[in-house]
């Protein structure tokens, strides 16, 4: 069933003829569905979910097409195709999203069949990137490379990709359904803000298994996912998820779109009753039909075999010389580069957050460059992160300096991963029909205000997340500083929250005080930072730790003192 | 209304009797679940076949104990977007071992037909004027499936395979 790629590359699932046939059939099916809409056989109401399940949204000014990047991992060839499509059918750029996907914001409806056809040439599609179905499964962008990894999440994310594709029972759910999986000690996939969050672990025999968190989510009613089962063995992985989805499909609310997510069901039923329902389904579902065969898991694992790493010393002289000679590179190294499990290799984050830029946007020229760099330095593979950056996961330490010079020359060398300039922002009122306020200009203004990389590094770990409405696509609830756009009688205002945390110690931020205007917001953020710097016990105390220690009062006082 | 079976328009031997109207004893009829609950004793000794119609909020468990009384269970879709019926059918088949006819009624579109078949439905009541071609096509346009279902008992060890239908 597999044809594994040549040895110099690794890390992506390679389609076989059956996968290709499936995508081709779906493209043709959608073409016919469009025809049936145009002939009037399908009503607009009937066509809408079909269009959404093919990734096509109607935005404020144009159609948006969201391309699936399964668990955020793709090949250089695929990125080049995304670039070519952006050049030909959009305005020369694409936008990387918090679901580790890519979307085009200026698409013509009549071009979509041609775009889908071009995507299929590189084994890509836009299926299930929207609609009330199970969406693209996300995972740790450092998967298969991180030094703290316990289980390779790609294997199980790929199993879920297949299992959720056109699932006959779960394609008309009460609402969308998002799953994230993390197999490392640090959670880089924000698992507890997902409908289902999975922590892959190992028992004392070394066998993989999963902790299931259910009912997390942001939006107008934010909830942190609750632990429903501590340990689900690998063979029961699919059966347990099937049980959760069946309970949700039967009991999830359908009377009110704002109460239809599984988080509300878990909340209203209570964790105990919900768990009992799931366990009953699971006990019955367990058995040969739903058992995940270890051979299947091994077959899929082969696709993700490690690339042919050279045997290298972990210490790189070349790297140390470059670090000592170039302070800007040294700064990037300290901020954007993480430890790799293979000695002599490192994981490099490519920030899509230049000072004053639009978070997550990349021009087609930049995409082509990253594709070239991925081929030259990282076995032809790259990842999209849920904070809207890119990652080259397998770079030789000896070559990091060369890589950085080329990134920097193309405006991709910002040293701000995890810092105040690494802002998540939703498309906001510039694009989105649901938004109350613009997100992008505020993100641009804040990142311009904190442009100095040295100042950013001094401030340290501090995530700002901006949503243009209560639907919270910019994850503002879990920003160390969160900003929510609201509309007050036709004027855009911004409500500031503090103390949110997307990692395993998940926390929803608290509102600091009354909403402020766009200009006041930038000043308020700076004031919050100043108060933090003045109050922190030492440089190692992060913003959220200082906040937890000193409380809201000093921050409030500074921002609202003049009122 | 046209009845879709095996991808074609078929003969419908059944008729639905609205609540309050007399139930004929000489031909197959479908009654509402609510009527069944209220008048179940009156169906003792009936020889002609009986079917029951479930609203989308009535889940499989509600009728499970009485399934041997029914040759047909009709599952209602108030809106095609309300997908509870897919789970209801699957529960009827897998959990409660029901082997009679399961029929989708209400608002269902051809684009859902393959899902219906794969979750255990045997027939669909389509709206008047429906395009039969779209129903026939729905079973053959996608031939790959990634999960086990009612039309196929192979274990999950084959995550991906061709469907036999069509």
Automatic annotation (TrEMBL), chain A:
Keyword Heme: yes
Protein name, per record: Nitrite/sulfite reductase
Start and end residues of each Nitrite/Sulfite reductase ferredoxin-like domain: 63-122, 359-409
An example Gene Ontology molecular-function term: metal ion binding
Top-level taxon of origin: Bacteria
Pfam families per record: NIR_SIR, NIR_SIR_ferr
Keywords associated with the record: 4Fe-4S, Heme, Iron, Iron-sulfur, Metal-binding, Oxidoreductase
Organism name: Azospirillum oryzae
InterPro entries found in the cross-reference section: NIR_SIR_4Fe-4S, NiRdtase/SiRdtase_haem-b_fer, Nit/Sulf_reduc_fer-like_dom_sf, NO2/SO3_Rdtase_4Fe4S_dom, NO2/SO3_Rdtase_4Fe4S_sf
This protein's record includes keyword 4Fe-4S: yes
Domain Nitrite/sulphite reductase 4Fe-4S: 130-283, 423-559
Automatic annotation (TrEMBL), chain B:
Species of provenance: Azospirillum oryzae
Protein name from the UniProt record: DUF934 domain-containing protein
Pfam families listed in its UniProt record: DUF934 (PF06073)
């Amino acid at each position: 069933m597999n044809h594994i790629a040549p040895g110099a590359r690794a890390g992506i699932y390679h389609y076989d003829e059956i996968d290709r046939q499936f995508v081709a059939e779906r493209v043709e099916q959608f073409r016919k569905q469009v025809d049936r809409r145009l002939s009037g056989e399908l009503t607009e109401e009937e066509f809408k979910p079909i269009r959404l399940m093919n990734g096509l949204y109607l935005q404020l000014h144009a159609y948006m097409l969201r391309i699936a990047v399964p668990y955020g991992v793709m090949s250089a060839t695929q990125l080049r195709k995304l670039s070519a499509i952006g050049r030909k059918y959009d305005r020369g750029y694409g936008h990387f999203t918090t679901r580790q996907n890519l979307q085009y914001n200026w698409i013509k409806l009549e071009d979509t069949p041609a775009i889908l056809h071009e995507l299929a040439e590189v084994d890509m599609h836009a299926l299930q990137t929207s609609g009330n179905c199970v969406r693209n499964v996300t995972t740790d962008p450092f998967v298969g490379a991180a030094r703290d990894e316990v289980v390779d999440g790609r294997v199980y994310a790929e199993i879920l990709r297949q299992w959720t594709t056109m699932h006959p029972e779960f394609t008309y759910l009460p609402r969308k359904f998002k799953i994230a999986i993390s197999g490392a000690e640090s959670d880089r996939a924000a698992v507890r803000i997902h409908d289902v969050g999975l922590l892959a672990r190992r028992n004392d025999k070394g066998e993989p298994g999963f902790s299931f968190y259910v009912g997390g989510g942001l939006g107008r009613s934010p909830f942190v996912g609750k632990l429903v089962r501590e340990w689900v063995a690998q063979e029961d992985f699919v059966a347990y998820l099937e049980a959760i989805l069946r309970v949700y499909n039967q009991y999830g609310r359908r009377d009110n779109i704002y109460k239809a997510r599984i988080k509300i069901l878990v909340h209203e039923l209570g964790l105990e009753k919900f768990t009992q329902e799931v366990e009953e389904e699971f006990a019955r579902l367990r058995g040969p039909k739903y058992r995940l065969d270890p051979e299947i898991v091994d077959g899929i694992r082969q696709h993700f075999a490690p690339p042919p790493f050279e045997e290298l010393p972990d210490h790189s002289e070349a790297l140390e010389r470059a670090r000592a000679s170039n302070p800007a590179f040294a700064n990037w190294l300290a901020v954007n580069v993480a430890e790799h499990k293979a000695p002599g290799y490192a994981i490099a984050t490519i920030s899509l957050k230049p000072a004053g830029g639009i978070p997550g946007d990349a021009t087609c020229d930049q995409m082509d460059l990253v594709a070239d760099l991925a081929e030259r330095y990282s076995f032809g593979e790259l990842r999209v992160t849920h904070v809207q950056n890119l990652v080259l996961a397998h770079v030789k330490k000896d070559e990091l300096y060369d890589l950085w010079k080329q990134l920097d020359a193309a405006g991709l060398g910002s040293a701000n991963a995890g810092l105040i300039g690494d802002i998540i922002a939703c498309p906001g009122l510039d694009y989105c029909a649901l938004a109350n306020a613009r997100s992008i200009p505020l993100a641009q203004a804040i990142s311009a205000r904190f442009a100095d990389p040295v100042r950013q590094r001094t401030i340290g770990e501090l995530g700002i997340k901006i949503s243009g409405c209560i639907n919270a696509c910019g994850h503002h609830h879990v920003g160390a500083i969160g900003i929510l756009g609201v509309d007050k009688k036709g004027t855009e205002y911004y409500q500031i929250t503090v103390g949110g945390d997307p990692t395993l110690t998940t926390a929803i931020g608290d509102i600091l005080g009354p909403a402020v205007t766009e200009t006041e917001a930038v000043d308020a953020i700076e004031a919050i930072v100043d108060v933090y710097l003045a109050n922190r016990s030492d440089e190692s105390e992060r913003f959220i730790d200082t906040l937890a220690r000193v409380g809201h009062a000093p921050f409030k006082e500074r921002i609202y003192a003049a009122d | 209304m046209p009845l879709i079976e095996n991808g074609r328009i078929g003969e419908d031997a059944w008729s639905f009797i609205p609540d309050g109207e007399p139930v004929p004893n000489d031909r197959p009829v479908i009654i509402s679940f609510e009527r069944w609950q209220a008048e179940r004793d009156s169906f003792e000794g009936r020889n002609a076949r009986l079917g029951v119609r479930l609203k989308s909020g009535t889940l499989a468990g509600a009728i499970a104990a009485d399934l041997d009384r029914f040759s047909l269970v009709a599952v209602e879709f108030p809106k095609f977007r309300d997908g509870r019926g897919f789970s209801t059918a699957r529960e009827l088949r897998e959990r409660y071992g029901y082997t009679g006819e399961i029929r989708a009624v209400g608002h269902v579109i051809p684009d859902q037909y393959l899902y219906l078949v794969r979750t255990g439905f045997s027939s669909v009541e389509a709206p008047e004027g429906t395009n039969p071609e779209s129903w026939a096509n729905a079973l053959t346009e996608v031939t790959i499936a990634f999960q086990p279902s009612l039309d196929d008992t192979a274990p999950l060890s084959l995550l991906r395979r061709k469907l036999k239908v069509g």
